[in-house]
Amino acid sequence: MEASIQIEVRSTEIDVLGHVNNAKYLEYLEWGREDWYNKIGLPYHLFEEMGIGTVTVNININYRKEAKLGQKLTITTKPLRRGRSSFVLKQEIHNEANELVADAEVVSCTMSLKERKSVPLPEALAKHFPASK
Q1: What confidence category does residue 132 fall into, taking pLDDT thresholds of 50, 70 and 90?
Q2: Which residues are identified as catalytic?
Q3: How far apart are CA 39 and CA 60, in angstroms?
Q4: What CA–CA distance (Å, rounded) separates 61 from 2?
Q5: What GO molecular function annotations does the UniProt record carry, in alphabetical order (predicted)?
Q6: Which of 27, 28, 71, 72 has the most CB atoms lying inside 10 A of its own CB?
């Protein structure tokens, strides 16, 4: 399942060059992932009830085009692939002209909240990823 949210660039997100600061894109992507979890029916409290947390372990982001104050951006998140305890989400940020502003692959893993070690993906999460080849 693919999920999208729209945001508007605010003045506090702009750097001295007049465009969105690179670190803000990480926040945008996080908002997109949280929205994806909610839309697939796995908000944080359900993970917590399972004794599981998701941890971001790697983000590879490509900055493609400037985003500026007042622009409306769409953050799209979709499942890409999964392993035993890890999974990859593909995220893209587009501007109002549907130009690609940034894209990223975000690797996360599931971990036991008690033991703080990786655990296999719960089926409630794994079922949202394409079957392994």
Answers
A1: low
A2: 15
A3: 24
A4: 19
A5: fatty acyl-CoA hydrolase activity
A6: 28
CB 74 within 8 A of CB 102: no
- Per-domain residue ranges of the chain: 3-126
**Which CATH fold would you assign to the domain 3-126?**
Thiol Ester Dehydrase; Chain A (3.10.129)
If residue 106 lies in a helix (H) or strand (E), which one and from where to where?
A: strand 100-112
Q: How far is CA 79 from CA 53, 65, 107, 126, in A?
A: 17, 24, 10, 10
The pTM of the whole model exceeds 0.85: yes
What pLDDT, in 10s, does the model give residues 77-118?
A: 999 999 999 999 999 999 999 999 999 999 999 999 999 999
Structure tokens at 33: 């992932």
Q: Quick one: which of 31, 28, 6, 9 has its CA closest to 18?
A: 9
